[in-house]
Amino acid sequence: MANTTYSFVKAISITDYMPAFKTNSEVQGWDWKKLYTMKKTSRATEQVFSYAGLPVAQQTKELQTLNYADMAELAATTFTVSKYTLATLFSHELLKDNQHLPEFLGEAGKCAGDSHSFAKDIAAASFLNNAFTAGSTAMYDGVALCGSHTMNDGTAFTNKLTTASLTWDNLWEAVNSFETSLVAHSGIYLRDTPKFLIYHPSYEKEVRAILRTTEGQPGTADNDKNTLRDYNLVPIPCRHLSTSANWFLAGSRFPSSNCWFTREGLSNKTEDDFDRMAVKFRSYQRWARGVKEFTYIFGNEGA
After folding, report:
1. Quick check: helix, strand or coil at residue 263?
2. How far apart are CA 169 and CA 210, in angstroms?
3. 198 pLDDT band (50/70/90 cuts)?
4. What is the sign of the dihedral through the CA atoms of 181, 185, 189 and 190?
5. Global confidence as pTM
6. Top-level class of domain 44-49+75-300
7. Residue 148: helix, strand or coil by DSSP?
């Protein structure tokens, strides 16, 4: 009867039924796919050109000299595919002794997926982290994503807002910039709807107050309607922002200028490593990303 004790039964149950991995947490990411247009490519690089449309029509008398306008092709934005590889080792003993091999390898695949997703989260935020710094991340005009740009016809366009923290009034300033500042490379006024509010989670209190307050301006005695609610802005917190004070307002057309090229999806492979009596598990993914046009996003470095 010794082998029927509770401790023996418990030992057997642990050996045979304990899951391969203990998971008790949820990986945190951010909704960057809302800001990107997802594309597929079979090449290592992609080039995307911006262009300047025809300018405003000129009135001329009948049969007078015609005024021609050329469609200007601006410099190309190059998307270069990078490869990200993840690998690990499992000993043969661990695999042979485990009673749940399919579950074990399945969980290992999920762990690899979490690691690759984290790499994508960081890469997707890179255009925000470099939005105010030109250098190697400059747009095709040599200026940072958010800065003072000169359009093809000579019109000045600035999508870097006066440095200020994220408040109700300052967010309205960003909205007003969308309403009054957008211009095409040909000098024609553009219209877009502010849609995405991108910020560090440290701003969460302010953002919730701004977007959810129904009556008046948050934190004041203003009893008017909260007119910002009419825009139905989509809040997108991003923990991967390197500077927590930065915040951005992007329009509904911005994702068409912000591209993500996936050359090859996640691939898992295993092979034996006889020198160490282990199984090598590796996976990789290849993709390129970047912003090809600066028109539909305004940035603020925060205070």
Report:
1. strand
2. 10
3. very high
4. negative
5. 0.84
6. alpha beta
7. strand
